[in-house]
Amino acid sequence: MRQKLEGAPAAPKGKAAPKTATGSARRGRPPRAGLSHWQQRVLDLVRASAEPASAYDILREMKDDGITAPPVVYRALKGLLDRGLVHRIESLNAYVVCGGPDHHHTHPAQFAICRDCGRVEEITDAAVDGLIEAWTGRIGFVADSRTIEILGRCRDCAASAVAAAS
Q1: Which of 15, 43, 68, 93 is the most exposed place for a label (fewest CB within 10 A)?
Q2: Is 0.90 topped by the overall pTM?
Q3: Rounded to an integer, what distance in angstroms lies between the CA atom of residue 52 and that of residue 95?
């Protein structure tokens, strides 16, 4: 990961976060409706990342929260994936937030991934989704998920490469 994740603040070192009525510790801002504290924390970290965040990038940032074991991060990511709040970029083994800050749904995803700067753009195209559905339907294949990852150069990196070659 090239840039440090900067998410919601952690509890000060040596001090436990106050317990809520349910007994769970709460740090930073209150969780979004339906999200656990850790899901909200992980979502904030993925959102704050300048590039796709791996589970271990997230875990490294949660060390100040007292989290040192991957299962907490993986459980939070699974919950976020199930709610359609994040996407997993398979080829990078990393996660990005779905759409804008208040955008969440589950859908087939297409991503343009810049191999130079790591930028990832989510593309939503109903025509592509329809073609894949037709192709898989024609052969009787039932897809569990449909994610397309396109690796190349973003506009800025492509322009820089052309300028450098001139």
Answers
A1: 15
A2: no
A3: 5
